[in-house]
UniProtKB/TrEMBL annotation:
The keyword S-adenosyl-L-methionine applies. Residues 188-277 form the S-adenosyl-l-methionine hydroxide adenosyltransferase C-terminal domain. The keyword S-adenosyl-L-methionine applies. Keywords: S-adenosyl-L-methionine. SUPFAM superfamilies: Bacterial fluorinating enzyme, C-terminal domain, Bacterial fluorinating enzyme, N-terminal domain. Belongs to the SAM hydrolase / SAM-dependent halogenase family. It comes from the Bacteria. This is SAM-dependent chlorinase/fluorinase. Pfam families: SAM_HAT_C, SAM_HAT_N.
Length: 281
């Protein structure tokens, strides 16, 4: 749900469409999708969260979407394309969950959204009237997803876009959520941010004693790396030389993160997205 005290949307003539893709910015793919949307819904407003999801990395996209959506107004439409299965038999879907709408491939990209938000409705995007006249096998973002998002923004009911789907039929990724058993947590590195900070799939709320347990440590078993220092902030001082030892803390999205003050923790420790994480409490 939205993080704001009231989830009642502001009355605005301009619907908000948020785009997240792995398209990058070198080519014109993002601009073309916006052009399609504006042709259908000329008053749409766009916000780009990122187009730098690593190519074909659906799990990373799922986490980024989960960490961003709640900061947008109720009624926002999220157009999300990380789609290594484009042109295959994977379904194109639109989902109404919580206060929001999500449009994209049924490949697990919405796994965390479905786990976190109340589910209301999902449909498969099959109705030809709400696609482009010619659908390519390589660019469903332009031909299927963008038109669907535009029509939803214009007020079209989801059921007009295609047949309804059971929530149980929607694909989930199985390796996104941390698992706790007693004082042990098994998880993974879900994202490396621009600064080289290592974001794990461990929600801080799962391990509330991380700030107080004398045994608390974050380990990377494949590399033999163990981080025992903990902090509440990135910097103990503005002095960059104060410490280059890695430490862990809760990040702004509520996950356990490993950092090096004023440095690139991922490069320093040799850690990549997907590495296993073990937390001892």
């Amino acid at each position: 749900m939205s993080i704001f005290q009231s989830s009642k949307p502001f009355i605005t003539p301009a619907p908000v469409i948020v785009l997240m893709t792995d398209f990058g910015l070198k080519d014109g793919f993002v601009g073309v999708m916006k052009g399609v949307i504006l042709t259908i819904t000329p008053n749409a407003r766009f916000i780009d969260t990122t187009h730098q999801v690593e190519p074909q990395q659906v799990a990373q996209g799922a986490w980024l979407l989960s960490s961003h959506y709640r900061y947008f107004p109720a009624g926002t439409i999220f157009l999300c394309v990380v789609d290594p299965g484009v042109g295959s038999d994977r379904r194109a879907i639109a989902v109404h969950a919580g206060d929001y709408y999500f449009v994209g491939p049924d490949n697990g990209l919405f796994s965390l959204i479905l786990a976190e938000l109340p589910f209301y409705q999902a449909v498969e995007l099959t109705e030809p009237a709400y696609r482009l006249a010619s659908v390519s096998s390589t660019f469903h973002g332009r031909d299927i997803f963008a038109p669907a998002a535009a029509h939803i923004a214009a007020g079209l009911p989801l059921e007009k876009l295609g047949p309804e789907l059971e929530v149980s039929s929607l694909r989930r990724l199985g390796n996104l959520q941390a698992i706790r058993e007693g004082d042990e947590v098994e998880a993974s590195v879900i994202h490396i941010d621009h600064f080289g900070n290592i974001i794990t799939s461990i929600p801080a709320r799962m391990v509330p004693e991380w700030t107080s347990s004398p045994r608390a440590a974050v380990e990377f078993p494949e590399l033999g790396v163990c981080v025992t220092e903990r902090r509440k902030t990135f910097a103990l001082s503005a002095d960059a030389s104060i410490s280059q030892h890695p430490f862990f803390l809760e990040d702004s999205s509520g996950y356990i993160l490993i950092a090096v003050q004023n440095g690139d923790a991922a490069s320093a420790l040799g850690i990549r997205r997907g590495h296993r994480v073990h937390m001892q409490l």
